[in-house]
């Protein structure tokens, strides 16, 4: 059946152009199977025709396929973390929201227009009206309004730091004249050895400071830290510097540091496992100096000892993935390497530690003194942190810029066409429906008008005119592609080419797009699989022969001649 509640990420809106079955999410259905529910022509398990039936088989009763009317589209859209929809991602989301708005629009019997209610939560209200208008083409009402006391709203209340509610402490470090990598190694070593000292002296209450969370703005910097953790830092902790009063520390992974990552380099299934294991606490019986000596003595005496099933993490290294969805109350220690790109990211990431008032958070911000921005934040460190909710930068999205329209409007046109026509039998919605574009050209023209009107509400007249010209151009290219394949005795499909001799595609993904293709032979529409894919991949050919460069010039590339050496 069509779902009543959908949880999704905005970056997958791009899949609407490829999944004809997604039309049911917006109530665009035409057939209902008594066995499979609302079905789309592309749905493989149900291939029976109208008014026919599935036979009584495998213990399942006879089931008929009947016609049905359109369902009510979504009435409520809840957007969490609105402040993260900015930059390149926000620009692409804003463009696809044009399609979503057209798909969810409907009219009552008396002709009254109905659109879903949009509720968005954000860490900042600065520039919110402009951002919301660019994304959704609507005005904004901020709730709750700050009337008398800015520190006391419907959702939150400002509490001054006390012993009962200590809050979170920020410490800034700038190692002028010292390489950042050297500072990373030394600071991480001291923080981890300090956590061991607390565990030896105070026992279980030191658990929040035994797992170090490292936050990085770039995966490249994180990868370097992961290497240092498994080498320099691990060795320094195990040997202990002779002049240091901090204790030795060995990792929980058979003496090695137990390190986890929360990055895009890790599979989704492993991310879930990592989040679960981050809740595993340190135990003084296994991890304190006294506990380790006792266990060692018992093992040497060949006496039975207790063993734990899962070892806690010594280090968790993360990038922007840490900002949302991580609610592990036991975390209390974070090292932020380099000042994050914007204040909202900094607030979100650093608030992952110290979430429990019984476990106050400590955030150590290690700035790169060679970067003017990091140095400026360090110089104003106290004032910045006392007022950093006022420092949140205004967000910017430009969904109707020339580049955005060139890269995203193909997917918007195909998505809306497939969804809106799913209520009809012979239409543009099925995978092989792409070949019906000439018969449905009046519909496509009306669709372009609807999309342009929506763009006009979110942008301006120039943006609407640019979008109209681009959409009309893409519609013409769609028709030319169908005619070109028809002359070759081929049928046009959207992308799923099962037989190269009889079918060819209208779309290709951005990563498969190649420069220099003959436009008559290549799919004219480039539609990404995800909104995070904004650039095609670049193929590099590396020669296995040393001291030899293999270079293949692309077609129509200008000739280049090595300049002569000057005398």
Explain the overall architecture:
This protein is an alpha/beta fold and 567 residues long. It has a domain at 168-386: Rossmann fold (3-Layer(aba) Sandwich). Helix content is 32%, strand content 12%. It is built from 13 helices and 18 strands. The strands form six sheets. It has a six-stranded parallel beta sheet with strand order 9-14-13-10-12-11. Strands 2-1-4-3 form a four-stranded antiparallel beta sheet, with no helix packed on it. The chain has a two-stranded parallel ribbon with strand order 5-8. Helix 3 packs across helix 4, helix 11 packs across helix 13 (461-487) and helix 12 (441-458) runs antiparallel to helix 13. The longest helix has 27 residues, at 461-487. It is globular.
Q: Do you know the CATH topology of the domain at 168-386?
A: Rossmann fold
Q: Which structural class fits the helix and strand makeup?
A: alpha/beta
Instruction: Examine the secondary-structure arrangement and name the CATH architecture of the domain at 168-386.
Output: 3-Layer(aba) Sandwich
The number of helical elements comes to: 13
The portion of residues assigned to helices is: 25-40%
General form: globular
Q: Quick summary of this structure?
A:
The protein is an alpha/beta fold and 567 residues long.
Describe this protein with a few key phrases.
Rossmann fold; six-stranded parallel β-sheet; four-stranded antiparallel β-sheet; 18 strands
């Amino acid at each position: 059946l069509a779902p009543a509640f959908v949880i999704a990420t905005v970056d997958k809106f791009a899949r609407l152009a490829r999944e004809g079955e997604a039309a049911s999410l917006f109530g665009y259905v035409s057939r209902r199977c008594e066995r499979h529910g609302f079905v789309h022509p592309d749905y493989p398990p149900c291939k029976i025709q109208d008014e026919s039936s599935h036979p009584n088989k495998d213990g399942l009763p006879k089931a008929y396929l009947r016609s049905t009317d359109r369902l009510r589209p979504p009435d409520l859209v809840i957007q969490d973390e609105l402040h993260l929809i900015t930059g390149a991602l926000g620009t692409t989301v804003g463009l696809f929201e044009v399609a979503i708005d057209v798909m969810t629009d409907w009219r009552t019997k008396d002709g009254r227009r109905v659109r879903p209610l949009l509720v968005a939560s954000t860490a900042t209200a600065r520039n919110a009206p402009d951002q919301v208008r660019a994304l959704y083409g609507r005005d904004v009402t901020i709730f709750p309004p700050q009337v008398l006391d800015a520190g006391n709203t419907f959702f939150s209340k400002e509490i001054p730091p006390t012993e009962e509610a200590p809050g979170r402490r920020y410490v800034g470090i700038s190692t002028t004249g010292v390489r950042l990598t050297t500072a990373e190694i030394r600071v991480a070593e001291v923080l981890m050895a300090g956590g061991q000292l607390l565990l030896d002296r105070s026992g279980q209450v030191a658990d929040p400071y035994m797992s170090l969370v490292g936050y990085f703005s770039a995966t490249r910097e994180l990868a370097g830290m992961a290497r240092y953790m498994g080498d320099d830092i691990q060795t320094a902790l195990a040997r202990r510097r002779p002049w240091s009063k901090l204790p030795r520390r060995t990792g929980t992974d058979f003496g090695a540091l137990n390190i986890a990552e929360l990055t895009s380099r890790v599979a989704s299934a492993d991310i879930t496992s990592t989040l679960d294991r981050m809740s595993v606490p340190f135990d003084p019986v296994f991890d304190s100096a006294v506990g380790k000596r006792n266990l060692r003595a018992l093992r040497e005496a060949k006496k039975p000892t207790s063993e734990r099933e899962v070892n806690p993490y010594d280090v968790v290294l993360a990038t922007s993935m840490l900002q949302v969805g991580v609610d592990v109350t036991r975390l209390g220690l974070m090292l932020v390497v380099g000042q994050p790109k914007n204040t909202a990211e900094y607030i979100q990431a650093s608030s992952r530690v110290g979430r429990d008032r019984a476990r106050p958070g400590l955030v150590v911000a290690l700035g790169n003194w060679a970067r003017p921005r990091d140095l400026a934040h360090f110089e104003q460190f106290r004032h910045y942190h006392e007022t950093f909710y006022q420092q949140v930068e205004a967000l910017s999205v430009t969904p109707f810029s020339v580049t955005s329209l060139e890269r995203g409007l193909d997917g918007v046109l195909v998505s809306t066409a497939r969804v809106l026509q799913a209520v009809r039998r012979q239409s543009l919605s099925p995978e092989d429906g792409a070949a019906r574009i000439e018969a449905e050209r009046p519909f496509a023209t009306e669709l372009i008008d609807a999309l342009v009107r929506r763009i006009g509400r979110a942008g301006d007249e120039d943006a609407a005119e640019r979008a109209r010209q681009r959409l009309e151009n893409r519609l013409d290219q769609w028709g030319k592609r169908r005619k070109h394949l028809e002359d070759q005795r081929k049928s046009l499909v959207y992308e799923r080419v099962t037989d190269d001799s009889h079918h060819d595609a209208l779309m290709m993904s951005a990563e498969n797009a190649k420069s220099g293709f003959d436009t008559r032979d290549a799919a004219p529409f480039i539609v990404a699989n995800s909104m995070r894919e904004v650039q095609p991949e670049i193929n590099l050919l590396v020669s296995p022969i040393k001291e030899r460069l293999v270079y293949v010039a692309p077609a129509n590339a200008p000739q280049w001649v090595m300049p002569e050496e000057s005398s």
